[in-house]
Inverse folding.
């Protein structure tokens, strides 16, 4: 009976390649450890409340007595892309995200609309969450213009409302209710143009619960996480 002599050979790596291999391994490790992770979680168990343009957080429980006289979004009445009247009652018992845009904007608005589209897709079947975009150029953005814009952007009626109306009402909501502008301390005249990249998160009781940069995906992902937190209240 033949005996087979099984031996193992050691792998010999020329010394001149040793440092090259070490550097490659370190680079590979760094790349794999820094892959982007878009899924975020809220930084807190309960979101704060906000009542003015500095967005100083106030921490209350949902049944706190202080909320009785705390800042809420004022009643409003506007018209959406389907020609339907949209009021604060449309959002009664709903969480919603709001922003301000105009259809002919060549700068930040297309990206903001694209990121609102991400929110629409994320919460498409979630009846608790709605979206609200106000035109800051109602003299141009008529119902027909908004309808065409909605069609081109894949906007779902009754999920995402594009609204027009009186300029004075829209600008008052933006500056005095949602505090979307960042020019703190500057006195704004009625004729001054309102233009901002901010998204604002509103809870089911019309309280402001967060503000986010609508051009920044990390901020948008944080908004998604905060909506999920708000749903648990």
């Amino acid at each position: 009976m033949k005996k087979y002599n099984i031996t193992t050979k050691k792998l010999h790596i020329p010394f001149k390649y040793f440092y090259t291999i070490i550097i490659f391994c370190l680079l590979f490790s760094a790349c794999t450890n820094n892959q982007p992770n878009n899924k975020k979680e809220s930084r807190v168990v309960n979101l704060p409340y906000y009542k003015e343009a500095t967005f100083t957080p106030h921490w209350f429980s949902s049944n706190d007595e202080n909320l009785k006289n705390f800042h809420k979004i004022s009643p409003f009445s506007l018209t959406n892309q389907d020609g339907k009247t949209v009021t604060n009652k449309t959002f009664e018992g709903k969480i919603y995200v709001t922003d301000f845009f105009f259809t002919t904007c060549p700068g930040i608005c297309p990206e903001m609309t694209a990121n609102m589209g991400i929110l629409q897709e994320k919460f498409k079947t979630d009846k608790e969450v709605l979206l609200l975009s106000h035109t800051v150029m109602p003299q141009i953005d008529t119902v027909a213009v908004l309808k065409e814009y909605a069609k081109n952007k894949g906007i779902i009626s009754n999920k995402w409302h594009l609204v027009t109306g009186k300029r004075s009402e829209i600008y008052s909501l933006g500056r005095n209710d949602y505090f979307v502008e960042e020019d703190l301390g500057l006195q704004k005249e009625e004729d001054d143009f309102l233009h901002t990249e901010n998204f604002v998160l509103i809870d089911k009781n019309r309280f402001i619960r967060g503000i986010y940069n609508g051009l920044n995906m990390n901020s948008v992902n944080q908004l998604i996480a905060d909506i999920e937190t708000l749903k648990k209240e």
In short: The longest strand covers residues 95-101. The chain has five helices and seven strands. Helices lie at 18-33, 109-122, 143-153, 167-177, 217-231.
